[in-house]
Amino acid sequence: MTDLLNQLNENLGHVNHWITIFLILAGLYIVVAKSNMIKKLVGLSIFQTSVYLLYISPSKIVGGTVPIISEDYAVYSNPLPHVLILTAIVVGVATLALGLAIVVRINEAYGTIEEDDIYAQDWD
Amino acid sequence: MSSGLLIVAALLLPTIAVLFIVSSTRRPNLREAFTLLFASVLFVVVCTMVPSVIDGDRPSIVLGEVMSGLIVAFEVEPLGMLFALIASSLWIISSVYSIGYMRGNNEPRHTSFFVCFAISIGSTMGIAFAGNLFTLFLFYEVLTLSTYPLVAHKGNDEARAGGRMYLGILLFTSVVFLLPALVITYSITGTLDFQLGGTIDTDNGPFLIGMLSVLFIYGIGKAAIMPAHKWLPAAMVAPAPVSALLHAVAVVKAGVFSVVKVIVYVFGIDVFNLVSSTDWVSYAAGFTVLAASVIALRQGNLKRRLAYSTVSQLSYVVLAAAMATPLAIMGAALHIASHAFGKITLFFAAGSIYTAAHKTEICQLNGIGWRMPITMIAFSIGALSMIGVPPTVGFLGKWYILSAAITATDYFVLFVIFCSTLLNTGYFIPIIYNAFMRAEDVIPEHDHGEAPWPVVLALSVTASASLALFFFPDVPLALAKQLAWG
Amino acid sequence: MFEQYPVIVVMWPLVAAALCAVVRRERWCWILALSVSFISLVGAITMLGYLDGEAGFISYALGGWRPPYGIEYRVDTLAVYILILVSFLATGVLLYGRQSVKAEIPANLQGWYYCMYLLCLCGLMGIAITGDAFNAFVFMEIASLSMYVLIGLGRDRKALAAAYQYLIMGTVGATMYVIGVGLLYTITGTLNLVDMGERLNPIMDTPAALAGMAFIIVGLSLKLALFPMHLWLPNAYAFAPSVTTVFISATGTKVSIYLLLRYLYSVFGFDFIVNHSPVPSVMLVLSLLAIFVGSLTAIFQENVKRMLAYSSVAQIGYITLGIALANGAGLLGGLVHVFNHALMKGALFMLVGGIAFQIGTVRIEDMAGIGRKMPLTMLGFVIGSLCMLGVPGTVGFVGKWYLAVGAIQNGWWWLVALIMLSSLLVLVYMGRVVEIAYFRERPQGAVALSEPPKAMVVTSWVFIFACIYFGIDTSFTLDTAESAVEILLAPKP
Question: Cα(C270)–Cα(C490) distance, rounded to whole angstroms?
Fold first, then answer.
């Protein structure tokens, strides 16, 4: 019984990574399966969000405290991944903004934002 | 003038000629004069190199290294000297011929014609004087590319299709077979140089040497070994001067020249003889000789018959080279020379008939011998040279090849030569007979005599040369002896 | 001053981009872009000169924080090779393209165009110069985002769809790269590439390291358009403005190839990649597919830019074939081909841009008979075709030769035959254009023609001459590539 509980504890302890995997797959699926351009961008954002979780999860060190230097503490959590993720979030926002701008222009030019219709109009 | 500079001069002259030809495009007579001027100077330059080569000198010059191991270098040895002599002398004569032909037939775009011609001769010089496989390959490709516009010159659909097949087959064979052959040779010997006695030795194993021989022989598509010969008949869409010089002399000769050079200087005669996996070359060449002659018999178009005759004669050279004895190599070199003069006469005559009478089929040639006596006499001399009858120069090459075959008791070669001589007679003599002995069955619309005088002059000169070389064969013989016995 | 060069080549384009965004007058933006590109080129060449004297590398610590804690800019021969390539092309394209930009981009957006161009240049130079994994991602995205804009400004509305497709695929690729970096960071604790390589040594075959490696390779392959992740490339190159196409075709994928090489050889190590991973065999299959599928598809294209784009897919296959051969000669062939292909494709796209400028369309059928009207341009195209074919004496031959030598060193005779066979496919699709241009008559009532503007013709020909020159005098490209190969193949410390 305790073995089972231990194993469950170990696996559930990785719940962050399970969510990461789920988000990766969900995001990629949406990008690939949906033909609406805005939905694709949403899927892309979900895919990028999984990365944030992937970076931040290992940054919390067991027994570590907030990364502010103090004489009372010896173990700190790692602040570097948070910095990296801030950068990644900015990049993600810029990508999303650009993508949406392109979609607006596509809508003006083609009259639709469904990829299938766009390909039907020009590449038949 | 130092010998190295002479080599550079020989290569530069056609290149500079291009500039002059392009600049004088608005004054046709001046432009033609430039071509003739540069051709003559080139011939003189080449002639001055001959005595030293016969004495045993090997002038050479290295231009530079492109990549490690790939050097552009030139070295004049007897076979190359012979080839250069043929090409440069015939450039002058065929320029005279071209002037008459292009003007007589109102062909379009003369300037680009003469420019491409000059570039082709320049690359032929590069091939003749190449000192290693890389230089040979470089100029071999340039020759293919510069003759393509000449083949497709007429610009109509037929010409374009012919040009496509020409370019396609030649580039295919050179890139897919010859280039890997170069890479493999470099990998196993460490060098691409030509050396007397060859750079490959028997340590490499019969399989490797056999495979290399396949890659080289089929890679040199210009030698037209079957089945890589299809480009030759396809290239007959070109105007007759192009067919004459390039396909009777320069392009095809570059092919068999490269084959002989590879056998003598890369494989080495001894290695080629010893290893049994190279025996297939004689059989392929012999097959080509006979098959091409049979196909020639069935051709009704004069130029196509001549094209297949060329395929057949080229394989004589390869057959002789494959025997790989000094006497046979001598025969191969001599046959390169004798075939050149004979074949160019034949193509000149075909072009002359087309210019004067607009006839292309053999069945239309009944009785034309009396209207165009000079042309048809020249044709007869050329045909006799192909068959190998004295006193034409064709006899010379055949004699040495036969001697070599008898000395080596190579019954296959004897059989092939015997049969093909019969076949040659079979497809040449009827033409001559019909031209002189049959009466004209259709009166032509307009009375015509000979073609314009430059055309007739050119073919008379080459026909006379075919006769003269029989009586005064010193230079070709000396060069061939130098090649075979070093 | 010299120690600041690594940051100057990245910082100046960034500052200039901001200035362009403020100034927005076409003439001043062009002058600014040209001068900054030229400064970057001079800087890159100076760094090469410095490196030639001493082996090793130039290291610059961004912000004064010393590596491996801070971000390090690390310039060795391989990096400087790419830097010179990118800046040389940036300068050349600007000299070439002013009239083309004026013709194809709306007037109020031309200043912004140069701003994006500079941002792209900054990003590309940054990828080549940085020694930090995450910093590479940042620069990669700077370059990519500006590329999406540069592509989307094309005249045809298909440019927008192409930009969107590239955005989606490119971002997926970049995110995969980040996932890979994240996994490697988690197990090594460092982002500095050299340090990461050292720390990976004992743990190279743990699942985390392998997964990280896989993600990075796939992510970068998306960016460099390795088959079958090349789908964004044909549309992006075909419908973008001519100037954009020249620039990104010659630089975009090459920089991603550089990054892939860095990871494969400097972080994971030659020994691991070749002996303990399936990377060479997978690369071999994908490269061959890229070469043949790319060339075959090119043959059936009606749009000359799309044809050249598929041709690029095939040529990228040659470069990755060099990686797949897993020996010094193959790698040398691939690296040399990076430079040479950039020259060839740059020249060809420049010429095609000139043709498009004059006849207004890029359909091959509409190019009938222009051989006589635009003799210089078409002659350049013919020479460019010969280079693509791999005729000796041109740049295309050098890479192919070394790839063949590398294949024979492995004993793969069949690969030599395949490499040569694929050159013939080049003959078919390039020969088609040459034939139509020279051997067909101009249709009745067609637009009267002359050569494109002098700037375009002259710059195209400078690149064509470079194609021939670097094919005959291969000292610069080969020597630099050889030093780069030595660096890559050296065992990790």
Answer: 8
